[in-house]
Amino acid sequence: MATIVNGFRAVAFYILLTLWLIIFPTLLTPLRWLKPEFSKTIAFIWLKGAVILARVVCGIRYEIKGKENIPSEATIFACQHQSAWETFLFPTILQLPMMVVKIELLRIPIFGAYMRYIGFAAIDRKAGVSALNQITDKAKAALAAGRNVLVFPEGTRIAYGQRGKIQAGIFALYENCTAPIIPVSHNAGLVWPKNSFIKKPGMVTVTFHPPVPKNLSKAELFEKLSTLYYS
Fold it and tell me: I need a surface site. Which of 7, 31, 95, 173 has the fewest CB within 10 A?
């Protein structure tokens, strides 16, 4: 019975999310033409609405631990990646950071356009060293402008309970940027499983950990993140 109920909830959620994606930005597009910077406000409200829909329709709630570890200056947040849910949540609680995303997301109608408007950094994961240079340059520019940077060091979603592989991009940022790196772990995959249509009600615990120490080797950095993500 619970699976059936959650299935109906998921159907309702995706219908409402799609309508929210189409109607809200479309209605406010004239405002963006008059004032381009209003794109950020539109995107923020849309993302906040998606998080609210997940809570009201699917019963997905969240709590945040380690708020004292969030610096006041522009910071790099290295977030564990288990579902699409955290891609809605983190831009709202980090005030629309520059988020590093895969280039395929820019092809999504409306959603992809707004990702461009608000300055998300889309990279081609097959580009190798070129992609690392793009990430570093865009992150430096964002940090210099006082904007947070949000990256997913695993590079893709990892199912809850499985161990992913930390990618080279986070070490490029660690080596070349002076801003602190705050690891962020969570358990969103329990309620929003990878590649699962059905969502489950429950509480997601999001933890902001202390900054990563300076002068770590690549292996030490990867081990540090892996311990926080998978222990």
Answer: 95
pLDDT in tens, 109-156: 666 666 666 667 777 666 566 667 878 888 999 999 999 999 999 988
Model pTM score: 0.88
**What phi and psi, each to the nearest 5 degrees, are found at residue 193?**
-65, 150
Question: 119 near 98, Cβ under 8 Å?
Answer: yes
What phi and psi, each to the nearest 5 degrees, are found at residue 122?
-95, 130
Residue whose structure tokens are 């969030």: 70
Contact 65, 208 (CB under 8 A): yes
Q: Measured between alpha carbons, how far is 21 from 16 in angstroms, rounded to an integer?
A: 8
Contact 169, 65 (CB under 8 A): no
Contact 155, 50 (CB under 8 A): no
The CA-CA-CA angle for residues 178, 180, 186, to 5°, reads 145
In the chain the domains, ranked by start, together with CATH numbers, are 61-230 (3.40.1130.10)
Question: Measured at the alpha carbon of residue 10, what is the angle toward residues 7 and 190, in degrees to the nearest 5?
Answer: 90
Q: What are phi and psi of 59, to 5 degrees?
A: 75, 25
